[in-house]
Amino acid sequence: MVFKRLMRFFSRLFKGKKTVKLGFYGPVNAGKSSLANRISKDFTGEEEFHVSKIPHETREIQVKEKVTIKRGKRELDFNLIDTPGIATKIDYTDFIRYGLKEKEAKDRAKEATQGVIEAIKWLENVDCVLVVLDAAENPYNQVNITIIGNLAARKVPVLIVANKIDLKKANIRRMKSAFPQYKVIGVSALKGKGMDEFYEELFNLVRR
Amino acid sequence: MKENITIQFIPHSELASVNSENKLKKILKIVKENKIVIIEGKLKADEEAKLIENTMKQIDKSFKGIEIASFEEAANFDFFYKIKSGLARMLLGDKFGLSIIGPATLVKEIKRDPSKIELMVNR
Fold first, then answer.
1. B59/A90 CB distance under 8 A
2. CA atoms within 13 A on the CB side of B29
3. Strands of the B35-40 sheet, one edge to the other
4. Residue range A152-202, pLDDT digits in tens
5. Cross-chain residue pair B59–A142, CB shorter than 8 Å
6. Do residues A55 and A28 lie in contact, with contact meaning Cβ atoms separated by under 8 Å?
7. What residues in B contact A146, CB-CB < 8 Å?
8. How large is the ipTM?
């Protein structure tokens, strides 16, 4: 442990500042892209990730490179890696209900299945992960458990972000009791609520 | 009109000597026959991820994916329970726990919370 920290210190000293590959993982429509946008907007002034109410809007890995996050005198460089939502089922008729034409819906479903595969493969390429969950949904969902289980097996540091705390149904206590061994932070990426505590925990996560 | 739902139980002994790839193949084959599979033992985290990957590769007009839930023990039980369950896991290995997997066209949702499991079926 001490040796690892020393190595990290010397590698930073001689190679310059490390860029942390920060993955955004979670089920579909939990607000991964919204959170990535919020971070990007707070520190670069730009929103680069597509968001939509239609599920599976993110169907490819999106990377925003070198976002410098500052906390007082500290600063860290991140590559924000937004991944497609992980799902166990995809039915194109669900997209038709959102007003998409059959051909569009089928294409979206096909791309979404590829996106899920890509997201799982990218678990190998991240340094730290934000598992973004919808605070108004049941946290005891197998997708959540599978994602967290795979990250734990790879020893990737994880911060659970319970998004959408502005919603009436949001239940942060339930989120915390579902994952007692992890730090759970409540935010509203859309409204910018809870972001200060989130950034503090993000710095703690990287230090681990 | 009556509709039959088939639940197939796979004991640990049937999968113990099979490698992960063949285990997942077998599970998906049964699920694609429109059956709900109950497996004695919990799938490993990487097997669950691979099962999702393989499911995505096989989604087509008739196969829409799966519903899955694995059960071990609730994480927020007390210290003595955790010791007992830890011992059980040591003795039973991957025989400990339970996994339920069903086709998404048949199983609408598997609701779980620390104290109960509910399997909601499409009708």
1. yes
2. 7
3. B6-10, B35-40, B98-103, B66-71
4. 999 999 999 999 999 999 999 999 999 999 999 999 999 999 999 999 999
5. no
6. yes
7. 45, 48-49, 52
8. 0.87
Neighbouring C-beta atoms of residue A205, cutoff 10 Å: 19
Task: List domains and CATH numbers for chain A.
Answer: 19-207 (3.40.50.300)
pLDDT exceeding 70 applies to what percent of chain A? 91
Burial environment of residue B52 by CB neighbours within 10 A (0 to 12, 13 to 18, 19 or more): buried
A chain contacts of residue B118, beta-carbon cutoff 8 Å: none
pTM (predicted TM-score)? 0.87
Extended strands (E) in chain B: 6-10, 35-40, 66-71, 98-103, 107-113, 116-121
What's the pLDDT score for residue A14? 45
Q: What is the pLDDT of residue A163?
A: 98
Across the interface, of B55, B75, B112, the residue whose CB is closest to A88 is B55
Look at the block and give the residue holding tokens 């579909």: A28
User: Do the Cβ atoms of A117 and B57 come within 8 Å?
Assistant: yes
DSSP state of A85: P
CA distance linking residue A201 with residue B111, whole number of Å: 31
Q: In chain A, which residue's Cα lies nearest the Cα of B43?
A: A146
Q: Residue B109, class by beta-carbon neighbours within 10 Å (0-12 exposed, 13-18 middle, 19+ buried)?
A: middle
pLDDT of A79 over the 70 cut = yes
Could you give the angle at the alpha carbon of B31 between the alpha carbons of B26 and B32, nearest 5°?
100
Whose tokens are 């927020």? That residue is B76
Whether the predicted pLDDT of B62 surpasses 70 = yes
Residue in B49, B64, B112 nearest the CB of A146 = B49
